[in-house]
Design brief:
The protein is an alpha/beta fold and about 475 residues long. The protein has a domain at about 55-375: Alpha-Beta Barrel (TIM Barrel), CATH 3.20.20. It is built from 12 helices and 19 strands. The strands form 3 sheets. Strands 1, 2, 3, 4, 5, 16, 17, 18 and 19 form a 9-stranded mixed beta sheet that branches. Helix 3 (about 135-145) links the parallel strand 10 and strand 11. Helix 3 runs parallel beside helix 4, helix 7 packs parallel to helix 8 and helix 8 packs parallel to helix 10 (about 295-305). The longest helix has 18 residues, at about 215-230. The mean pLDDT is about 95. Bound molecules: zinc ion. The site of zinc ion (ZN) has 4 residues, from loops. This is D-hydantoinase.
């Protein structure tokens, strides 16, 4: 008889397809058996009354990352990964950010050193802000060889945005290697024009941050990004969709066959632009880009989530403390454009989605698994993660679905001085989290150790059922154009 290192027994196993009663046998860090009953095991974890599901894969987090303005996030790979684990994640894919003038090799070396502290497994999406010939021809292919199969670009921020031509160059390189390009889609000139209008009227409070980045600016940029990707026949992932209009464009273009993926984030469903009106410096805590929207947007985004418009719900954890090291590096009494953008939430993504989504009946438990882990594994080529099946890494979260609590800052276990979700009542909590069979969280307490996480390389994006869109200009029968892309 096989001797298992660990057996998780008596739980309800939840996958992206089904929920069933069963046991999981783990050996050497991998799931080797899933069956009705499994005897033995050096360690037996009783999951009676609990849900056993793939550990979350956090696909959008800013950890130990400098902004283009040079502000460092409050969370490094130790605090960030601990917070992620408390939130039911067994792996994450933060960003490794290239700033202008840096080589990709240097960026990956830097983040490699930073990530060694992680308690959960990690990989990176590469942010590209300086697509020189050397980057495009030499450095990105080399990064791809190392299993970095996703690149992120910005359509906004002066120091980050590449312009349409730069995006087409990245998309073309990504396509050649099977990489997916992620995009922050907001129209930079629309935002800058709004900033000038507001500044001229002396409107500088945090609430005007939301006004300065209109829904139209996102919708226009999402549409443009998709058309650029269609021209290059490349896979595209729209990050943090925050508008009903943007989601509708994604849905339409997916239906038309575009090689398209998208996510939204809890903050766009849990909070509104009214939160930026909180007094004093409080409003700044709710500044992120794209900004929080109105109540009716939340209903639309929930509908899109239930209908499958989004592959993932991600946190966009961007931990800038509400002090002079984070939000207020330029001072406390400054206009909104000088306040750092972003909010924390890596420990809240899954508990919030479970409580508001599954417990309240807006999405199924199977959808929850897909949105939290399985789809991210497919999109980002995590071939051994995000699923409960023989041969997969034993990346597993065990949830108590019944426990109710009030969200507090202490609960986040990050290095922040606030949580935007403070005071919310939520139901359901991850009690155990395993990464490759080793416990990181046990009975709701941290047992993982610094450096326990390992880097994982990734495979090309899974483009099955996304044929792409035939363009008449590239029709082979017309005998022109095909060799162009
Ligand atoms: Zn982000």
């Amino acid at each position: 008889m096989t001797q298992f290192d660990t057996v998780i027994h008596s739980g309800q196993i939840a996958t992206a397809d089904q929920v069933f009663a069963g046991d999981i046998g783990i050996k050497d860090g991998r799931i080797i058996a899933v069956a009705e009953k499994i005897a033995g095991g050096e360690r037996r974890i009783d999951a009676g009354g609990r849900i056993v599901m793939p550990g979350g894969i956090e696909g959008h987090a800013h950890i130990a990352q400098e902004s283009s303005a040079g502000v460092m996030t409050a969370d490094d790979y130790l605090s960030g990964s601990i917070s992620a684990a408390y939130g039911g994640n067994s792996s994450f894919i933060p960003f490794a950010a290239q700033h202008r003038g840096q080589s990709i090799d240097h960026v990956l070396e830097t983040y490699g050193a930073r990530a060694r502290r992680s308690v959960i497994d990690y990989s990176w999406h590469l942010i590209i802000s300086d697509p020189t010939e050397a980057v495009l021809q030499d450095q990105l292919p080399r990064a791809f060889q190392q299993g970095i199969t996703s690149f992120k670009v910005f359509m906004t921020y002066d120091l980050m945005n590449l312009g349409d031509g730069g995006m087409l160059d990245i998309l073309t390189v990504a396509r050649a290697h099977g990489a997916i390009t992620m995009v922050h889609a907001e129209n930079n000139d629309m935002v800058k024009w709004m900033n000038r209008q507001l500044a001229a009227r002396g409107l500088t409070a945090p609430r005007y941050h939301a006004i300065s980045r209109p829904e139209l600016a996102e919708e226009e940029a999402i549409n443009r990004a998709i058309q650029l990707a269609k021209l290059a026949d490349a896979a595209l992932f729209i990050v943090h969709v925050s508008t009903a209009g943007g989601a509708a464009i994604v849905r339409r273009e997916k239906f038309n066959g575009a090689k398209l993926f998208a996510e939204t984030c809890p903050q766009y469903l849990a909070l509104t632009r009214d939160d930026l009106d909180r007094p004093g410096t409080e409003g700044a805590k709710f500044m992120c880009s794209p900004p929080l929207r109105g109540r009716e947007t939340q209903d639309a985004l929930w509908h899109h989530m239930a209908m499958g418009t989004f592959e993932s719900v991600s946190s966009d954890h961007a931990p800038y403390r509400a002090d002079e090291t984070g939000k207020f590096t330029a001072g406390f009494d400054v206009a909104y454009p000088k306040i750092a953008n972003g909010m924390p939430g890596i420990a809240m993504r899954l508990p919030w989605l479970f409580s508001e989504g599954v417990v309240k009946g807006r999405i199924t438990l199977e959808q929850f698994v897909a949105l939290s882990a399985t789809n991210a594994a497919k999109t980002f080529g995590c071939t051994t993660k995000g699923r409960i099946a023989p041969g997969m890494d034993a990346d597993i979260a065990i949830w108590n679905p019944d426990v109710t609590r009030t969200v507090t800052l202490a609960d986040q276990h990050d290095n922040m001085d606030y949580t935007p979700f403070e005071g919310l009542q939520i139901t359901g909590r991850p009690e155990h989290v395993l990464t490759r069979g080793a416990s990181v969280i046990a009975d709701g307490k941290l047992v993982g150790t610094e450096g326990q996480g390992q880097f994982f390389g990734r495979a090309p994006v899974d483009l099955r059922a996304r044929p792409g869109v035939a363009l008449p200009e590239f029709d082979p029968a017309q005998n022109f154009g095909t060799e162009l892309r």
